[in-house]
Description:
By secondary structure, the chain is an alpha/beta fold. It is built from twelve helices and six strands. It has two domains: 76 residues, lambda repressor-like DNA-binding domains (434 Repressor (Amino-terminal Domain)), CATH 1.10.260; 191 residues, Endonuclease, Chain A (2-Layer Sandwich), CATH 3.30.870. The model has no long low-confidence stretch (mean pLDDT 90).
Amino acid sequence: MANGSRQAAWEFFGAELKRRREESGLTQSALGMRVFVSGGYIGQFEQAIRKPQLDVAQRIDEVLQTGGFFERLCRQLIDDKRYADYFAAVVELEALATRICEFAPTLVPGLLQTAAYARAVTLAANPFVTDEYVEDIVGARLERAAILKDATRPEYWVTLHENVLYIPVGGAAAMAKQLHHIAALMRERQVLVMVLPYTAGAHASMTGDLRVMGFDDAPPVAYTETSFSGTLVDEPVVVHRAHRAYDLLRAAALSPEASLALIESAAEDYRQCTSTT
């Protein structure tokens, strides 16, 4: 399903939710209370600003007695083949999160990637795929990043290992543009980025990517990823350990100001490389 038609389908979901809620005589707050989310979230579902998780859609069906209508529609919309099975739930949750804390040891996180960078990453892992496949993956990644422009965007804290700045994904021109993009988001205060320098040595997440997401109306979750799989965890003890690991990473990182200076310096180095070749 193309991006535009998928958004139109979510708008249909929202319009039907509003119609059936009003037919039942429920306010947004009243429905939210019964399905364990806020009334504001119901309003955002109705406007297609946020997308409900499957369990919320199931509870909406129970309350409004809609015979599984919203569950079926939700299942159809979240069955997005542009994402690995283990990552699809993460995409839905990050659109609902009020706070995302992410550690990236080798690659720019998907929410911060430019098209050229995302394209290079996709081709490196899939050298025999069609251009259409590549553009679908790139489009999905850029679509996710739209949450950073939204009025309800989450607080987004990112700790990048210094590796990320110096692995030339896509070549010098792509890296210059990518790092300038991150710097621009930092200066616009849409994201807070810190760099974990090489001099920090061993750190609290040596085995891979780490993400912790917090929500207004639900417990936090943690997500870890390796090359071919990812694990989404909601067990409180494990989530607490993940949050502590992220705190340790943040404590070992450069300040946001020093990180911005390093990112812009690396971007300028790449830019100069392109101008001399």
